[in-house]
Every structure is written in C-alpha cells, then in structure tokens.
Amino acid sequence: MTLWKPDPTFYPSPRDAAEAPPEKLAYVAAFDRSAQRPDALAVLDTDPGSPSYGTVVGWTDLPYTGDELHHFGWNACSSALCPYAPHPHVERRYLIVPGLRSSRIYVYDTKDRVSPQLVKIVEAEELGKRAGYSRPHTVHCGPEGLYVSALGGYGDDGPGGIAILDHNSFDVLGRWEVDRGPQYLAYDFWWHINHDVMVTSEWGTPSMIEDGVVGELLLGRKYGHKLHFWDLRKRRHVQEVDLGDQHQMTLELRPAHDPTKTYGFAGVVVSVEDLSASVWLWHRDVRHGDGSRWAAQKVITIPAEPASPDDLPDVLKPFGAVPPLVTDIDLSVDDQRLYVSCWGTGELKQYDVSDPFKPVEIGSVRLGGIVRRDAHPAAPDERLAGGPQMVEVSRDGRRVYVTNSLYGAWDDQFYPDGVGAWMAKIDAEPFTLDERFFPHGDDFRGLRVHQTRLQGGDASSDSYCYP
Amino acid sequence: MTLTAVILLGAFHGINPAMGWLFAVARGLQERSRDLLLQSLPVIALGHLASVALVVLAVSATGSIVTATALSIGAGVVLVGFGLWHLLARRHFRWVGMRLSLPQLAAWSFLMSSVHGAGLMLLPVLTRIPASHHGHVLSGGMLVAGVHTLAMFLTATVVAVVVYEFLGVAVLRRAWFNLDRMWAFALVGAGVVTLVGAI
C-alpha cells in the first residue's frame, strides 16, 4: 500500500539529505566462503546511545548455501521524487540482495523489524531468460525501477550488463541496453540522473574472476580498464573512455551527488606497470568538440609499498611489494570528501575533493594489510588480516564504516592464512577510529563481511534530482 | 456551480506536483534560470489541455450516437473503473529523462495527464451539457476544457514560483500529500454520482 505522505527517508536534494538523522542500524552482507552454511544479512547497532552499540543485533540466514552475497541496495530511494515520474509515496523498506555466485536475487523486508525477513526470491533462471544475464552485482533505484548490473551472460561468459526489475513486484523486466556498442565487461554503474547519462565500469567475466585473479590475464592486461557512457533515456552506448590497459580493474563509480555537476570518481585496483593504484576523475571534455564528450584523468596515485618476499603471499612474491589495491571508494553526499580503501596495504585514506581535479589527502587510518597487519585500538594485540575494503559513509558525512573482505577467491590469494571478519567505524572529523565499534571474529559467526547499507540510506544509495 | 467545479478541478491538477509544476521548478533549478521555469509552465498546460480536449472530443462523438442516459451510464462506468484501477494497481507513470525540449515537455504533460485521467473528471459536467445540438456539446465542452486548463495553469504557476523563489523543494517532504490516491477516490465517487443521476 502506498503512503499518504512521502517516505521520510526521501530527500529532494543532497543538501537536504545531509541533514538526515543518524542511522541506528547498519545492514551487512555476510557470506560463507566454504558454501557449507547459508550466507546471511547481519544487522549492526549503530546508535551510540544504545547499550548494544557496535554489536550484531539482528541476523537472517539465507535459505540456500553458496550465494556469495556481495553488494545490495534498496527498493526505492530519493530518486522517487524526480519530477518526470514521481512516486514519492512508495516505501523504502526492501533490501534487494543479489547472490554474486548463485545469480539469485533475494528481496528482504526491513520494516518494523531488526532482522530482515525474506519476501521473494528471483531465481537465476528468471534473470537469465528475461534479461540474458548472470552474476548480479550492483543495485540502484532509479527512474525505470531497479537497475541491477551483472557480470556475466546467461549460459555465456559475457557480455555483462544491466537488468531492469519492477520496483513493486521485483519481477525481471528485461535487459536495459538497447545498443551496447563495444561494451562487453561489466561491474559497477551509476548515473548523472539530471543529464540523462549512465556510466558503467569493468571488472571481468565470471571465468576471469570466480577462481581468483588470473596472473596471465592480469599481466596480459585483459581485465577491464574502460569507462562507458550511455544515454540513460535511449539506453544507448555513447562513448567509451579507455584509461589505458595498464590500469587493470576499473571498479567503483561515484558520481557527484549534486545533480547540476557532471563529474565523478572511479577507482582502479592496480597498475601492472608499478603495482600502484589510482583514482580517476571523469568529466565533460570542455577542451575538445562541443563539450558533450567525456574525458577522464588520473587525480590520485597511490604507490605500492616495498616488502620482503618472505612476508608476501605467493601471488605477490615475484614483485617484492604490496600493491595498495584500491577496491572501493566512496564520495560523501555533500561531494566534499572522498574515501579510498587500500585493501592490500591496509589503509583508508580521506581526501578533500572540494576541487575534484585536485584531491588533497587529509586523513589516514591503518587497519590490517597484507604485510603490516595493523591492529584496531579496541583489540590492540590482534594482528588483523584483510584491510579496509567496502566503505560506506553516512548521509551527514560524519561516520564512515568499513568491512574487510573483497571477494571469496581473491581473499584467499592475498590473505592465504585467512582474511577473518571485521567491521570498523571511523569518525570523519577528526579522522579517527571509534574504539567502541569493532565487531569482529565470532561476532560474524564464521562468515566474511562485505557491503554495508545504512538504515534510511547512505552516500552510495540515493540519487537526487534537485540541486 | 458547474463552473466552480471546473475551476476547482483545474486548481487541484495545478497543485499536484506530478502534473507538472515540479518539473518546471526542477528545470529552473537545474539551469538556475527562472525564465526556463516560466517557459515550461505554458507548455505543460498545453499538454494538459490536449489531454482534456481529447476527452471532450470522445464525449462529443459518443454523445452524437447514443442517448444522454447511455452516455451518463457509460461515463459513470468509465470513472468508477479508472478510479478503482488507480487505487488497486500499484503501477505508476514511468518516464526517463530530464533533458526535454519544449515540444517533448508538452508531450510528457499530455501523457502524464492522460494516464492520470485528468479529463475524465469533467465527464459528469460534459454529460450534462444539453445535447439538443451536436455542436453545443463540442463548443461547450471545449470551453470547459479551456477554463479547466486555465485554472490549472494559474495555480501551477503560483505554486511553482512560490516554491522556486521562497519555499524550496524541501517542502515536498512535508507537503506532498498523496493526491493521486485522493484523486482515485474522487474518480470513483464522481462515477457513482453520475450513475445514480442517470438511473
């Protein structure tokens, strides 16, 4: 049933969203690497005034095993207020949770309960037959319903792309692309919603990732290294921007939340030339043509850290260095702060991006890391495996949450003695770890933790149609 | 009495953010241009008028071949059915795209108004115009459509300018009452009244 007043978690503009009340719960995707036990949604108490602050207060096991939960999203968000097809009286209450390995998509109800309740399963076959895709990944709520990116084809390795789901029934409506042009690899996507522009990125097809990173493919520069720009309305490929094939794995896309702006940040995991990682800024190319073309430039370079081969896992021994491995980035809702996860070196960096062309590093937190194994102040004797990986920022920009697993098969290569499971919270100003918030180890019942979604929305969940 | 109802219905559509003033405000905010906002509103009203006029044409054409009673009953059934469908179906108008030319904006408004059933509410009024002469229904109906749209346009303009200049769109969070659901109830109600009057 629809509401009489707009859902209170919908905000017309990013400015309004920054005034949102602090989240009291965080939902975290947790998965069992061995696929012996079901994956789960863990719910964390994020209310500092609550006696159970920083602990797991809700838990919902999935009905099957082997899904490998990864990313997920909401059924509806602030884009429901967009003027051309407004539907503000729907509720933000369902989490859309894809299994990256099983290709199932689960729908969980979060209303009036702590532990989410399963309400629907979209089987891999429905996604495959209706949209032609498998390995669903990123979920965004947008003008045509739910958009879900997928890494693989149905029955084929590729191409990956985007499927559209109805945001009421959650039925798969079909493939989003009308003309995909040269695009083949898929991973993340988002948009400049008021400019009718879609942006997509590239990782690899299922065969390139599911058994771990493949050295020959990496050194052969076969993983994704391009950005694709599309007409969001006509669903047509418009332009590809190649960052250069040494820049392997162009993953997370974070466009400016201000709908009048046409820039965004893309993280690149590793350069095969020097193992550095980088963050790129895409923007309208004002120097060439009529200003409608897109360009990208490297705005952050993070060098590898030298290390003794004895301290390195097999996959890195030949290089004698730890790559930073920028696997996730997140942009605050006010577009002023960019957070960059260095999963290899075990660091979360904070940048001032008020001038997006010239990011300035203003903060750093060390946790884990392939060699350093930095501890959390709440457990100073515990050498941490994994590093800050998925990063999520609260709508007001004051709190940053990180979890430590990347992707099952890849965790095992870079942290072969076990990646463990932990989640940390960092206060943004000043940039310091919250010693009261460190769920880890058995708190997650032996499962690894991946993406976090904050109650009511967060910095990577909502798009806004008003400046 | 009838004229008042026609004007009030126009004002009701004018107030509804989904009917266009919000789109005009968004276009203005996006380009930081009040001119664009003011240009958009008449175009949106034009699309609305086209949608309403289509209903007038349909009524006029139907009225020339069936009796007044049959017309009223048909109108009542259409209203109740459309209202119920709006109440029960969870589908909503779908459209992607913010960057529209003015003709595209008019087309958007026409579609939005039609899906909303904006002209249907005039059925009770239209079916009551004396059908002694076919031309009367058409010209009288077009006058009704024109007055209705003018009321819609004036209301939308006032709301759009006030929101753009003074209130800001954050007011939507508090003030965006679910007019669509109310509209659906109103359609059903008007249909029932028309049916009762006809029988």
From TrEMBL, chain A:
PANTHER family: METHANETHIOL OXIDASE. InterPro entries: Se-bd (IPR008826), WD40/YVTN_repeat-like_dom_sf (IPR015943). The lineage of its organism: Bacteria, Bacillati, Actinomycetota, Actinomycetes, Streptosporangiales. Its EC number is 1.8.3.4. This is Methanethiol oxidase. GO terms for molecular function: methanethiol oxidase activity; selenium binding. Pfam families: SBP56. It catalyses: methanethiol + O2 + H2O = hydrogen sulfide + formaldehyde + H2O2 + H(+). Pathway: Organosulfur degradation. Belongs to the selenium-binding protein family.
UniProtKB/TrEMBL annotation, chain B:
The keyword Transmembrane applies. The chain crosses the membrane at residues 36-58, 65-85, 105-126, 138-162, 182-198. It comes from the Bacteria. Keywords: Membrane, Transmembrane, Transmembrane helix. The keyword Membrane applies. This is Uncharacterized protein.
